[in-house]
């Protein structure tokens, strides 16, 4: 197991910023949104996320939408910016897709526990499903600064749902692409080429971001190869800041006790082998504070 | 006549024995124990921080999905997840007190004995401004355990909590609107010794997933909150203060702006709580304080207490 530490972070803590759309572009089936939001760039770390309000100030859609940070730029000519990638699959994200430059957007962030990074220059695999690849590019840059070898695996259902395959070629020593329909790259899932890639490159840490099923499968491959895994989960959230208790997942602590922990503040990045993937959507028996059989609650 | 400036409005509020700098609080379950919101504003600026309901034992809560967005609101089905009273008294409550916040501690139990134990342990902790007794959380496995649905059961809980809470620490009963007559429950808990009311808890609701055509929430049903419930909450505050004019009432349900808070005060509430709006705007509670000052100043009202109950023609006949 590689010793890993989170970076020292200064300044710390999230901000709430009334931002302004700088640009919005279509990228395949997704949208790439750049928002001018001062102060967030300086605080962001790879794997942290932002929560955007949708529908404007009198919107009846109250819950913030959470997105992994794709890129940030500290204040320059235009003030600091934060970039995200999203799919317009619900009313909130459909509203976002219709934003125009200069429209106001309220941003809370950066939020969450970022990717932990190795202290040693080890070989890393970065696995992204769909637009889950977005936070991996900033991570790749940091890992290369630490002299780590970076290998990327990007997968999606079809070519238009891949994000960042060109950018990956600049960010990584090797790029492997998979699509379920075979429209580009290897026909299949990210976990199909992963075992051979890990063996070939002596991968010691596997980072992943994407749907829960993919994270679970990637963790299984990583663990089977004795590698350390860091997974960024996507659980629906109401607040993103740790007060609503809706985004919990069952995670095993250092004391071997399972707790329902908030993916917004204790995650979204978890050590993959600590998440009880098979039990997501349940409160597993024996969880801290779970109802005990025969005892009315 | 000089115009009243917002900063000159007197917001001080008295709720039974609790004296607060202003009438704006967080709503239980929407602010955890204050620590997360302290990243966005100083929790000591609030009239009070109402903590997430604490139970005797640690509690995992319900399975996910735990929330569904609904028009102008949301359903939640958390199931009172929490660390239990030992951990709360060891870490969360001292944290609030160190920051000069005014904690109102929400307690929830499955039995009279649990309520009594919580009342003793919380009530004997110096610095607790009041106890809010949650007898109305809809997210318990057995809906029969919602004490607030039955005036007799509700009164038994409040009698026990009042008996075991030191004098000088007011006890407020948080009631459910899912009853035939909220006035009947309100009268019963006041008769049993409560010092005031918190109106309202969430309404029981259901969301269907359009893809699966099955209930979206892990707990099947959930509690509806947000601006969608504001008219229901205002109605409950109105009815309770009409029937029980001397009872201090804290209004909660869908408050998003200072104008919303003002409506609750006019309906008879002496104080208000901001809940679901926090999820949309983490700074909402302090913004509501600022906006309430502006709303009162714009109307030339120098003291917030002057506006309480204004909507009741029988209590406040229009001046000739």
Structural key phrases:
heterodimer, A: 297 residues, alpha/beta, Elongation Factor Tu (Ef-tu), domain 3, 3 domains, seven-stranded antiparallel β-sheet, seven-stranded mixed β-sheet, 6 helices, 16% helix, disordered N terminus, B: 320 residues, four-stranded antiparallel β-sheet, 18% strand
Verbal overview:
- The complex is a heterodimer of chains A (297) and B (320).
- Chain A folds into three domains: 9-111, Beta Barrel (Elongation Factor Tu (Ef-tu), domain 3); 112-232, Rossmann fold (3-Layer(aba) Sandwich); 233-289, no CATH class.
- Chain A is 16% helix and 33% strand.
- Chain A has helices at 40-43, 91-97, 136-145, 165-171, 194-201, 212-224; strands at 4-5, 15-27, 30-36, 49-52, 65-68, 71-73, 81-86, 104-111, 117-118, 123-129, 149-156, 174-179, 186-187, 203-209, 228-232, 248-252, 258-262, 269-271.
- In chain A, the strands form four sheets. Chain A has a seven-stranded antiparallel β-sheet with strand order 5-4-8-2-3-7-6.
- The longest helix of chain A has 13 residues, at 212-224.
- The radius of gyration of chain A is 19 Å and the shape is globular.
- Chain B contains eight helices and 16 strands.
- The two termini of chain B are 21 Å apart.
- Chain B has one domain: TIM Barrel.
Topology diagram in text:
The complex is a heterodimer of chains A (297) and B (320).
Chain A: E1 4-5, E2 15-27, E3 30-36, H1 40-43, E4 49-52, E5 65-68, E6 71-73, E7 81-86, H2 91-97, E8 104-111, E9 117-118, E10 123-129, H3 136-145, E11 149-156, H4 165-171, E12 174-179, E13 186-187, H5 194-201, E14 203-209, H6 212-224, E15 228-232, E16 248-252, E17 258-262, E18 269-271
Parallel strand pairs in A: 10-11, 10-14, 11-12, 12-13, 14-15
Antiparallel strand pairs in A: 1-9, 2-3, 2-8, 3-7, 4-5, 4-8, 6-7, 15-18, 16-17
Chain B: E1 13-15, E2 18-20, E3 24-26, E4 49-50, E5 67-70, E6 73-76, H1 85-98, E7 103-107, H2 112-123, E8 130-134, H3 151-164, E9 171-175, H4 182-191, E10 196-199, E11 203-206, E12 208-209, E13 214-215, E14 221-225, H5 230-243, E15 249-252, H6 258-267, E16 271-274, H7 277-280, H8 284-298
Parallel strand pairs in B: 3-16, 4-7, 7-8, 8-9, 9-10, 10-15, 15-16
Antiparallel strand pairs in B: 1-2, 5-6, 6-14, 11-14, 12-13
């Amino acid at each position: 197991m590689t010793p890993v530490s989170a970076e020292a972070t200064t300044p710390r803590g999230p901000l709430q910023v009334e931002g302004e759309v700088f640009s919005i572009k279509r990228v395949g089936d997704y949208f790439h949104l750049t928002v001018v939001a001062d102060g967030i760039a300086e605080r962001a770390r790879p794997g942290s996320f932002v929560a955007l309000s949708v529908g404007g100030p009198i919107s009846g859609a109250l819950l913030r939408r959470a997105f992994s940070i794709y890129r940030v730029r500290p204040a320059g000519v235009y003030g600091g910016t934060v970039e995200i990638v999203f799919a317009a699959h619900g009313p909130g994200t459909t509203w976002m897709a219709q934003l125009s430059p200069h429209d106001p957007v309220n941003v809370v962030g950066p939020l969450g526990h970022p990717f932990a990074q190795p202290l040693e220059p080890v070989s890393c695999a970065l696995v992204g499903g769909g637009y889950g690849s977005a936070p991996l590019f900033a991570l790749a840059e940091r890992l290369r600064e630490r002299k780590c070898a970076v290998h990327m695996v990007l997968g999606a259902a079809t070519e238009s749902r891949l994000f960042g395959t060109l950018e990956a070629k600049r960010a990584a020593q090797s790029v492997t692409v998979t699509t379920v329909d075979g429209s580009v790259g290897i026909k299949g899932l990210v976990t199909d080429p992963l075992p051979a890639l890990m063996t070939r490159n002596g991968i010691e840490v596997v980072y992943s971001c994407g749907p829960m099923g993919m994270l679970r499968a990637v963790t299984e491959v990583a663990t089977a190869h004795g590698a350390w895994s860091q997974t960024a989960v996507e659980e629906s959230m109401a607040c993103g800041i740790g007060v609503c208790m809706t985004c919990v997942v069952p995670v095993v602590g250092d004391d071997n006790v399972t707790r329902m922990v908030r993916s917004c503040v204790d995650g979204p990045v978890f050590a993959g082998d600590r998440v009880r993937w098979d039990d997501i959507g349940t409160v597993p028996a024996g969880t801290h504070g779970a109802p005990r059989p025969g005892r009315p609650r | 006549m000089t115009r009243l400036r917002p900063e000159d409005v007197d917001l001080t509020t008295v709720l039974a024995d609790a004296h607060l700098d202003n009438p704006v609080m967080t709503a239980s379950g929407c602010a955890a124990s204050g620590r997360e919101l302290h990243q966005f504003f100083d929790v000591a600026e609030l009239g009070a921080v109402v903590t997430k309901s604490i139970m005797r034992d640690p509690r995992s809560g319900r399975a996910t999905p735990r929330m569904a967005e609904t028009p102008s609101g949301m359903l939640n089905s958390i199931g009172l997840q929490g660390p239990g009273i030992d951990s709360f008294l060891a870490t969360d409550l001292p944290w609030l007190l160190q920051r000069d916040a005014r904690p109102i501690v929400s307690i929830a139990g499955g039995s009279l004995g649990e309520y009594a134990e919580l009342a003793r342990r919380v009530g004997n902790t110096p610095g607790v401004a009041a106890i809010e007794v949650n007898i109305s959380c809809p997210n318990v496995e057995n809906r029969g355990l919602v004490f607030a649905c039955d005036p007799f059961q509700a009164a038994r809980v409040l009698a026990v909590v009042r008996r075991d809470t030191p004098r000088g620490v007011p006890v407020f009963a948080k009631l459910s609107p899912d009853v035939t007559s909220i006035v009947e429950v309100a009268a019963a808990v006041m008769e049993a010794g409560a010092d005031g009311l918190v109106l309202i808890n969430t309404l029981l609701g259901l969301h269907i997933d359009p893809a699966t055509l099955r209930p979206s929430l892990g707990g099947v049903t959930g509690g509806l909150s947000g601006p969608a419930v504001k008219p229901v909450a205002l109605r409950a505050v109105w009815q309770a203060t009409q029937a029980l004019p001397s009872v201090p009432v804290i209004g909660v349900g869908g408050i998003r702006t200072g104008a919303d808070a003002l409506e609750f005060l006019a309906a008879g509430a002496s104080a208000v709580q901001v809940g679901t709006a926090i999820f949309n705007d983490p700074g909402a509670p302090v913004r509501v304080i600022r906006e309430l000052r502006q709303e009162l100043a714009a109307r030339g009202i120098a003291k917030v207490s002057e506006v309480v109950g204004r909507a009741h023609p029988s209590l406040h006949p229009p001046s000739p």
